[in-house]
Each structure stands twice: as C-alpha cells, then as structure tokens.
Design goal:
about 700 residues; alpha+beta; Nucleotidyltransferase, domain 5; Substrate Binding Domain Of DNAk, Chain A, domain 1; 8-stranded mixed β-sheet; 6-stranded mixed β-sheet; about 45% helix; elongated; disordered C terminus
Length: about 700
C-alpha cells in the first residue's frame, strides 16, 4: 500500500514537471518569436537609414556641384569687376584728356575774346584820332574844346580797362542763382570725406565712396606723403599711411619720407606741445591736401553733373569744429583758395558750418518723422568721430526749427584711441622693442598692422623667449571676448560718462538720441549706449551710414538757400565790437585821454551768449568826421569776455578792418551809413549801407590780422 502511494505521488510530480517544462518552453518560444520580430523591425529600420544616407549623399553631391558653380560665377564676376574698374580707369583718363582739350579750347576762346577787345580798343583809338584830326582842322582851338576832348578820351579808356573786382558781402543773390551743385566737405583730423547733390534733385544726396581706385570706403585718411625736399606730394590719403608689406616698394620708400598727419590740429588753439611736429609749414600741407581732395571733388561732380563750371556753379560747404572762430575759418578759406577749390579768396561759393550743426541738420531732415508728436522735443546728437566725440543738445520745434539749448560737450575718446589701446596690448604680449622698431622704421606697415594685425611683425621680434612662445602657437595670438572688451572698455566708458553728464546738464527729458560719425558704426558701441540710456531716452537711433552724416548735413545746409525750409538759431561764442572814439569822462583812465579830450574804447555790437538766427544783423550808425571825408574804416575786434572796455585788453583780438567809400553828397544828413555785422550762416560778415538811399556799399577790404597767417 505504501509503495502504491509513492508511485502515485511520483506520477503526479512527473506530470506536474512536464506541464511546467511545457509552459516554460512556450514562454521561451514566444520570446524567441518576439526577438525575431524585433530583429526584423531593426533590419527594416537599418534599410531605411541606408536609403536616407544614400539620399543625403546624393543631396550633398548636388550641393557641392552648386557650390562649385557659385565659385565659378563668383570668379567670373570678379573678372568682370576688374574689367569694369579698368574701363572706369580708362574713361577717367579719357575724361581728363577731354578736360585738357576743353581747357585748351577755353584758352583759345579767351584769346579770341582778347583779340576782339583789342580790335574794339583800336576802333575807339581810331575814332579818337578822327576827332583829334577834326579838332586840328579848326582854325581856332579854345580851352573848352581841349577839355572836352580830354574828358571824352579818359571816359572811353576807362570803359576799355577792366574795373577791379570789389567784394560785396551782402549782394550774393546773383551768385546763388548760378549754383547748380552743392558739395559738403567733412575735413577731419584723421579722415576726410565729401558728399554732393544737384540742386534740382535735393532728395538724392550722393556720398563719394571711390578713393584711390577702390570702391566701398566713404572716407580717406587726412594724410600726405612728400618727397625728401617736401616739394611734391608722392602719395596722399590711405595709400600714404597704410603700407601693405606685399606691395611695399623699397625704392619708393627711399625716395619719400614719413607721412604727415594730424596737421588740422594746427588750425586750432592748441599749445605747441600738443601739436604734432611738422617738417613743413602747416598751411602748405593743408593747401596741398585740399588740392588733392579737390581733384576728387571735381571729378565726381563732372561725372555726375556734366557741363558744370566748377568755379561758377558749385557751392562748397566745409564743416569746422564748433570752437573755430572766424580767424580759423579765414585760414581754411586761404588754404582753399591756394588749392584752387575757389576762384577768389573772398568767393561766396565757399561757406562754413560747424560739424555738430551739420550733424543736427542731417538728423532733423532724416529722423523728424520718428520724433514724438509734440510741440517741442529735446534731441541729443552724439557725433562719434575718429578723434573726438561731440555732443550737442537741441530743441526741435514743430520739426521745422531747432536751436541750441545747452553748451556743447566733447572729449578725446574717438575710435583712434581704441587703436592706441590695441597697440598697448600688443606691447604687453610682444614687448616694447619690436613695436618701437616697427613704428620708427616702417610707420606705414604699423598702420597696416592696426588694420590687418600680425603678419608684418615677424622681422621685428628679436626676443627669443617671445619668439619661442609665438612659434609654439604657430604665430597666432588669440584675442577672446574679454580681451577685446578690455581694449574697448576704456574708451566706451568715457563716451558713456560724457553722455550721462550732458543729459544731467540739460535738466529736461531727452526725447531722442541720434548716433552719427564713423565710430557710431560699431555695433558694440550702439548696444552699450542703448543698454545704458534706453530707460531715460525715448528714442535712440542710428542712420544707415552714420559716417556720412556730417558731410550730407553740410550739403543740406548749402541747400537751405534753395529750399528755405529750416530755420536755425545758435549761440554767439564771442563778443564782437568796434574801436570807438568818444569823449573822455570822469572815471575814465587819465592815461588814455588824448590831447583833444577823447578816449578810444571797445563798443560791443553783439555779446557772447546771445541767441541769433540766420542773417541776424547787429549794426550802428556811422558818418564822416569832417565834411570832406570820402573814406571811412572801422576796426572790428572780438573777445571771449562778456565785458571788456578797451580793445587792447587781455584776450582781445583783431578780426579785421572794414573800409568803405562815403557817399559824395554835400548834405551831411545824406551821408549817414549803417555799419554792422551779419551773424548769419555760421560766419561773421561785415556790411555798410547808405541810410538815405538804401544802397549797399561794397567792402574794399576785409583782411585778417597777419599774426594769424
């Protein structure tokens, strides 16, 4: 019984084991089937990926073919561009030849006119001889006949001779009618550029972007390079300063000397230790530079506006710093005359405007639609140049008028100071010696280095440790964001501080801020200014080409006389007046009393700080001191002082002497003259007017003191 029970138990266990094995087998079989299915899916995905990979390879092949085609097209375009430049150069040569032919024809025409004048003169002489012969035939000649003949002969000879040209400072209306093109010249310390416009197409102002045969730059360097005798200009502009080592000509370098730059600083009132050392007189350098820039201006005007007589039909507007007085403008005018930018030194075809006001005029014309719709808006113009950053705060009124409301502010923190910081950084890495050697031996290559970094330094680095370090890095100096920021930051902080102080001085909400000037093209500078002042200034805007704003503003200023749409007020920076002879009174200095009881004093006509508009007049009444007086003159002085009693006081300067003819009238009342100053177009102009007839009297001389030439 026991055995049977055991057998039954074993049979039951065996059956249970078989069932478990069968169940496990089924599970394994199911997993195996699942793995097979998963493997099949993976194989399918692999095949799909292979197909996509083939498609990508095919697309990549097509892109490579298109890229090669683009390279071929680009190469063809470069060749065509070179051909166009070559054709342009040939056309320019032909145009110059045509100009020479025209000039020769003009000379021939002038000779023909001269011959005609000679024939007329001979005809008049012949007529006089006939009269003389008739008189000789008279039996009795009385004294009246002789006098009649003499007066008639003198009158005819007077009509033949050319009368000396006199300069009427007020009668410029006829000249304005002849103007067909306005040119704005932005003459800077480091860079110069110009814009121009046809007066019948005032919305299309062109800025010159072709310099030294290359297209794309809107300014060239204010630099000249002479031969060793400093007689002839060898190179000028960027080629005179930046020397590419690949194109460096040793013979040319030996035949010329170090380029001359920063010569504009001499026009200002800087002390001698701040002015650069020049090997030649600065006015000669400025005249020579104007002559070279004048060739570019004349070529550009001739191409854009053919059949233009430059000296008759072109108005040139030169921008000057706001602190330049009439003495400095007179120097520039004289240099422009010597450079043949104007036909006569006193020509009204040359005008001046300040750099800050030209920038303001440009911004007013181009950004007035962006200003808030209100009666008045305070606007700050930030002119970031290569050397100086100028700030001007203006009040815009109804988008048609603006006036200065605070003093201008400026600081030496332009883009050139970033170049200086870059050189300092290189000196830390490479040492002072190689940089000094490069500067002393090849100044032009150093300027090239500033623009194209390190390719020219190898020959000047003699320190073995520095060379070994550079060799390890394959002569690569990495400049990361932190280093670049440190180079920029010193200059950027000065600009931000300057703007902040100007905003505080305004004491009013600034509606808009406009960034102009070459340095304003820096995206980093734009971003820093916007970050710093976007909460306090409603609008911060930058024109498309801020580097051309001043030159285009000068053009717009020159067009005012034709459009007459914008009125400008400004603040007089000097007190102007005359030397006056008055009665000596108690309290006057006894040592200044003359023998006839008179004293000479300074009589102000307009005081410093006065707001003036275009062509505003400040005058006084004048007349003859004695009945037979026919010539009168007045010495005009100016000073930075608000109150000055005598013309020989400290800071007093002679502006010039104005001379004019008094009317030839026996009635003393009819000889009263109004003499004064016109504080109009950013220049001070003298005038004299007959009070009885209203006739404008021409100025016989308006000469600046020789001490300033």
């Amino acid at each position: 019984m026991t055995n049977e029970c055991e057998n039954l138990f074993l049979a039951d266990n065996h059956h249970e084991v078989v069932e478990k094995l069968e169940t496990g087998f089924n599970k394994l079989n199911n997993k195996f089937v699942n793995l097979l299915e998963e493997n099949q899916r993976i194989k399918q995905q692999y095949e799909n990926l292979q197909e996509k990979s083939q498609e990508i390879l095919y697309i990549n092949s097509e892109l490579n073919e298109k890229y090669q085609e683009i390279l071929r097209v680009n190469s063809d375009l470069n060749k065509k561009n070179q051909e166009i430049l070559c054709k342009y150069s040939n056309l320019k040569v032909k145009l110059q030849a045509k100009d020479e032919q025209i000039e020769k024809l003009q000379k021939d025409l002038n000779l023909e006119k001269q011959k005609n004048k000679e024939f007329q003169r001979l005809e008049i002489i012949s007529q006089n001889l006939e009269k003389k012969l008739k008189i000789l035939e008279v039996d009795e000649i009385d004294i009246n006949t002789i006098n009649t003949f003499k007066e008639d002969s003198e009158q005819k000879n007077c009509n033949i001779n050319d009368n000396p040209t006199t300069f009427d400072l007020n009668n410029n209306k006829s000249l304005k009618n002849d103007i067909k093109v306005v040119v704005g010249l932005d003459f800077g310390v480091r860079y110069t550029g110009f814009s121009y416009c046809y007066v019948n197409d005032t919305e299309n102002i062109c800025s010159n972007n072709i310099w030294h045969g290359k297209v794309g730059q809107f300014k060239t360097n204010s630099v000249l390079q002479y031969d060793y005798e400093y007689n002839n200009v060898v190179q000028w502009g960027t080629p005179a300063l930046v020397k590419n080592p690949k194109h460096w000509n040793r013979k040319q370098n030996n035949e010329s000397c170090r380029p001359i730059e920063l010569f504009k600083l001499y026009i200002g009132n800087l002390s001698d230790n701040l002015n650069p050392k020049l090997p030649v007189e600065y006015k000669k350098v400025i005249s020579d530079y104007f002559r070279e820039i004048g060739k570019e201006i004349k070529d550009a005007v001739a191409i854009r506006c053919p059949n233009i007589d430059y000296f008759e039909n072109v108005l040139l507007v030169i921008t000057v710093p706001a602190e330049f007085a009439d003495i400095q403008k007179g120097i520039i005018r004289k240099c422009a005359f010597h450079a043949e930018l104007i036909k006569e030194e006193c020509s009204t075809n040359l005008q001046f405007t300040t750099e800050s006001e030209a920038a303001a005029i440009y911004c007013m014309k181009n950004f007035k639609c962006q200003l808030p719709a209100q009666s008045e808006n305070n606007v700050m113009i930030v002119d970031c140049g290569s050397s100086i950053v100028n700030l001007t705060t203006l009040k815009f009124k109804s988008n048609t008028q603006f006036g200065e409301i605070t003093k201008k502010a400026k600081d030496f923190c332009g883009s050139s100071f970033i170049d200086d910081e870059f050189i300092k950084y290189l000196q830390k890495i490479l040492g002072d010696e190689p940089m000094n050697l490069l500067k002393d031996n090849n100044y032009g290559q150093m300027q090239y280095l500033i623009q194209h970094f390190f390719t020219v330094l190898d020959q000047y680095i003699t320190n073995e440790e520095i060379r070994e370090s550079l060799n390890k890095n394959n002569w690569i100096i990495e400049i990361d964001f932190k280093i670049m920021k440190s180079i920029y930051e010193i200059v950027i902080q000065k600009i931000l501080h300057l703007i902040k102080v100007q905003l505080n001085n305004t004491h009013e909400i600034c509606s808009a801020m406009f960034l102009v000037g070459g340095f304003s093209e820096s995206k980093y500078l734009q971003e820093r200014i916007k970050q710093e002042f976007q909460s306090s200034v409603r609008l911060i805007s930058v024109p498309t080409r801020p580097i051309t704003a001043v030159a285009q503003g000068a053009v717009i200023y020159g067009l005012f006389d034709f459009e007459n749409k914008i009125k400008v007020t400004r603040v007089v920076k000097y007190t102007y007046g005359i030397l006056e002879r008055v009665d000596w009174k108690e309290g006057d200095l006894i040592n200044r009393k003359t023998h006839d009881g008179k004293i000479y004093k300074f009589k102000p006509l307009v005081r410093r700080g006065t707001f003036v508009a275009f062509n505003q007049i400040f005058s006084f009444k004048a007349g003859p001191f004695i009945p037979c007086q026919i010539i009168a003159s007045y010495s005009i002085y100016y000073t930075q002082s608000y109150e000055e009693e005598y013309c020989d006081g400290p800071g007093m300067r002679l502006f010039g002497k104005v001379k004019f003819e008094l009317p030839a009238d026996i009635n003393h009342d009819n000889r009263s003259i109004s003499v004064g100053l016109i504080m109009g177009e950013f220049d001070v102009t003298a005038f004299a007017e007959n009070d009885f007839t209203g006739q404008k009297l021409t100025t016989l001389s308006l000469c600046l003191s020789d001490d300033y030439f």
